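Dear V.,

Thank you for sending over the compound details. I've combined the ligand you provided, pyridoxal-5'-phosphate, with the protein sequence from our construct and run the structure prediction for the complex. I'm sharing the raw inputs here so there's no ambiguity about protonation or stereochemistry in the SMILES, which I know was a concern on your side last time.
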Amino acid sequence: MTTTTKTKLQTIDAQHHIHPFTDSGDLVKKGTRVIERAEGVYLYDSEGNKILDGMAGLWCVNIGYGRQELIDAATEQMQQLPYYNSFFQCTTPPTIELAELLSELAPDHLNHVFFTGSGSESNDTMLRLARHYWACKGKPNKQVIIARKNAYHGSTVAGASLSGMTVMHKQGALPIAGIEHINQPYWFGEGFDEDPNEFGLRVARELEEKILELGEDNVAAFIAEPVQGAGGVVIPPESYWPEIQRICDQYEILLVSDEVICGFGRTGKWFGCDYFGTKPDLMPIAKGISSGYLPIGGVLISDEVAETLKNSGDEFYHGFTYSGHPTAAAVATANIKVLRDEGIVERVDQEIAPYFSEKLQQLASHPIVGEVRTLGLLAAIELMQDKEQHLFFEDKGAVGTRCRDISVTNGLVMRGVGSTMVMSPPLVITKEEIDLLYERVLKTLDDTAAEFL
Ligand SMILES: *Cc1c(COP(=O)(O)O)cnc(C)c1O
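Below is the predicted structure of the protein with pyridoxal-5'-phosphate bound, written out as structure tokens.
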């Protein structure tokens, strides 16, 4: 594509397209990067740049770009039956097949799924389902959902309310009633002078305090990401999840593991709860379920919750036009089969994640880096003004955004969350590609340090 047509596309984009999570005025000034195609772990933009996608799109392209199996699945399903709904006693073969496959992969007690079109819809579904479940159990007052500060659970009204991001809450008078937030297990940023496991226990016990404050008869569920993604790849100390599990069990609170990022191999296990050994009652899923090739999500539901619904004698008045969309379901099934049959998740666990961690940990001694943390193929690099003094930059967003831009110039997509640089590459990334990723991160850190230190 020539520069003139690119400029024209950018102009049209600026005139007509309001982008998500974007300062529109600022974008009009800067112009957008037009991504035209992709293959494997690489993106190609309209200016001819080949960029290593260190974010797998938005944490979702787990099997990488350009897989023919998914293209074929979509084509065949569209020819056969592009769309039909799952309302009014109907369903479609790909929807059924995907439901069975998910039940096989999920922890033993999760054998049911409610389909949605996205992670946000999954969390809206979770909220309504958790409250409805307790009403069916004769405990209609169990309504409050406890979530965490700095969590990300989506952008719909329920999703943004469950999310713990103050900037989102400021717009549109959120959160809605009945949602409470406790602290996140962000040791490096918020507990650095404490022993990590002591800190983990302390913040986990905030859940207990909150339940006692509200009364357990008023609390429906606790929701958390196994590893907080959009909040800056916050990996909890080892002590954290077992204590959360204990509290949920003791007070009869549904445990909701938001697996939208951690699901489908990101941690080196099929789900984040498999990694941490927790036993959630509900699991919102999306993103990696289809590697982003088509939009689809869902909520995995425990046998106990599903039985209660079935025995309630009433309808669950909830659903989407695209719940169980056959083409999206066929693509998700093809995606999961590639992940499973090629042993991609096991390879991440045994080979690729250890290599990724070993390489990136070499950056911990860089003058601008305060900490490097990884889990599976998730990584965070904390940028700091003065690591000896544990001093963060005053304007965290400015350094993170600049570092992100430098990174793209250096041929790598990293994302800045405040001054935390995060990565989540496709699970099919090779060791050679990790070497290249490492070189580009290093160059980016050098360039950023030259400007900010
Ligand atoms: C992305 C994300 C969501 C929202 O998913 P959408 O498909 O963007 O609506 C929810 N939870 C987590 C943990 C996510 O990362």
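A first observation: The chain has two domains: 33-66+343-452, 69-341.

Warm regards,
I. M.
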